[in-house]
Here is the input.
Amino acid sequence: MEKKTTVAEKNRLETLLQDDGVVQTPAMGPLVTYPLEIVVPEVRHQTPAVGQRATRPDCRLHGLGQTKYIDDMTFPGMLYARIKRAGIASARIKSIDTSEAEAMPGVVAVITGRDIPCNSFGPSLKDQPVLADTRVFHAGDGVAAVAAVTEQIANDALLKIKVEYEALTPVLDPLESLKLETPGVHAPSANIYGSKVIKKGDVAKGFAESDHIFEGHFRTQMVEHVPLEPHSTIAMWDANGRLSIYSTLGRITLGRADVARTLGIPMSRIRMIATIVGGNFGGKNEITTEPVLALLSKKTGRPVKGTFTRSEEFIASTTRHPLIMDYKTGVTKEGKILARKVRLVLDGGAYCSWSETTLGKACILSAGPYNIENLHAEAFVVYTNKTMTGAMRGFGAPQVCFAYESHMDDIATALNIDPLDIRLLNAFDEGSLSPTGQTLQSVVVRESLLRAAERFGWHAKSNASDGAGAGAIVASKTTKGNGVRS
Amino acid sequence: MKRRGRGMACMWYPIGFTVAANPSSAVVKLNEDGTATLLTGTVETGQGALTILAQITAQELGIATDDVHVVSADTDTTPMDTGAIASRTTYVTGNAARLAAEKVKLMLFDVAAPMLGVKPSQLEAKDHRIQVKGYPQRNLHIGDVANHARVITGEPPIGSASYNPATVALDPETGQGKPFGTYVYATQIAEVDVDDETGEVEVLRVVASHDCGTPINPMLVEGQVEGGISMGVGFALQEEILFDSAGRQINPNLTNYIMPTSLDMPEVEVDIVDNYDPTGPFGAKGVGEPTLVPTAAAILNAIHNAVGVRIHSLPATAEKVYAAIKAKREKNAGLLTGGTAQLPEAGPLGHHGADAGAP
Here is the structure.
């Protein structure tokens, strides 16, 4: 049955391919007739509303393939934009020749960084050019943009743009960047562009009173958000000089402010619409090419759409900060933490983006959910000529959690204490003081530890074998899927 | 040979962010039939935020989730919002929506009070009705009150409100202050199989016990936890952007940048810890980001538990894990042939397992 459908589908596609008119119909979901009576799941009708397992109204659209993402939208006369990426990590731009691209049939406009009224933006430090004009700070920097009648022509036009670079030695290692003698990525600004320190109690005294002192060194990698929907934007102007931008932004308030600033127009003349966003995870918290598309649209008088390729999603959007983490912890022989010293170095990549928030959260959270009387945590974020790092789900917390929890297990193993017990011994309680001196409310670290342990069967397993029950040989291949979902 | 191991990790995570204020505004309009429209500047990015906000608004007005239509993410029509970021939507935007709905509710009480012959303070909104506290049989349908407000008293109910978590800036010298309104807590325990001949790690099961204050919608909490764990598995074992010596990415595509698929997903058991935060809307905090935070740590602890090697750098790829196992074996063999009686299986740092991850 399935085979037959496949053959029929193949035949249908072949017929379609012969008829150009049909093939060019804009892509859309399968045709469905809408029922007059929409069946709404009972739970959406129940009161009280809080606590209900209410379904989402958008799930019907997703299920029917009817959700209109920005890349599904078209407007009459719409052009397609593509950005030329530098492909070199650090360089001075000597010249950009766009003449050959502009002469191509189907190319309607080409712009460079010099066309942008205010060519800098950023959520905190305004250190990021919309399009690089004099300097390239990382290989994913855009250097020119093309609007053409098809995406293919726009792509071809990128190859005709000639950029002459004077290559500079890139700074790639964050520890190298930290050194004062290393040339500044954004000279004359220093490479260390953010730092934070949290001091509580007396660390030296705490270490002196400790029975054991442990050290741990940890590193994490750079990762991408990889949303299913890449960054996508459509910009268009009306005859009154009002700009409408459909964008995959998760923060339209900040986005509008950044677009107004870079274009030098009042916010009241900008309408920013975000529709449904197909995954954010922090990667869509700031503008990327919105001002470029707005300028291309203004220059051509036509709507312009730009959608990142998967590769651009990696090289030209933000990523997760790699962290280099040094931990030193003093404990009693019972496993009570008396003092902890933490030093974090964050690789900020080429631009600040959300580094200040990431730095702050990483530093504050770095001691873990534990009562530690004597703490010294410090964190630095440095520029490198690599892909910029910014907001990503957890803002530095997954990195420091990997470090403080690995470190915790090392301490537990060395002292022959059960990992659950050492955590219970040190965990925050209701009213505990955080490393910043904040009185904590609604604290349930202990409850979550005990509930997870019970659900997992932690004690049942540890009693079954010696000590931690580690490394038991698995006799037969186990399959996933036999667990219970609540 | 596959070896089984288990590891736990717990965490704390703040709701909202530091550096600057992070307010949200919301507008609630009540229609003549007792249904409502919520205007919010936040963006639905797939997490279900708009459903949560509809539930909060509905709860305050005593109506059902489906009675609230949410208009979002348009700077021309919706009020200011700091955005879908920092796990703040339920807590911050939710508080703004609740406060806006409360204003609408109080307007309704003013209209309903003379209709029911009581003071506004004696009324409550429940199950689509405005009713007298303690005498629920004396009630009016919310739609009748809303219509009355429009056609008779001429006061169509509308409310707007803003919320910003109360914070105290950190002292630059000591870092002391109150950076966030509140925090959430969680523990995850992972069970893994590690193949000690290939270094391959299979995550079998993750038990995730999460605090989010009041779960406004337990199903969406579970969705967030499952999604976060999938991201955590990738962070722990697979994902890494690699650069060449000139600083260019060498794997910017999904062929060479390896991410977890459904086949890599462990069995996830979600447990929501009972909690109530007095500062959140109906006691709610948030859950978006924290779901990912302890996953990698739990998996790495499980690897250590299974094969006795501590991987100090992420991701713990099969190559890295195998190299560490091999180094440990060689070290053990060396110690044995050298006649050393003591084999430090575990001890203070630097004596328990090799680290293949050092750069």
Notes: The first helix of chain A runs from residue 2 to 18.
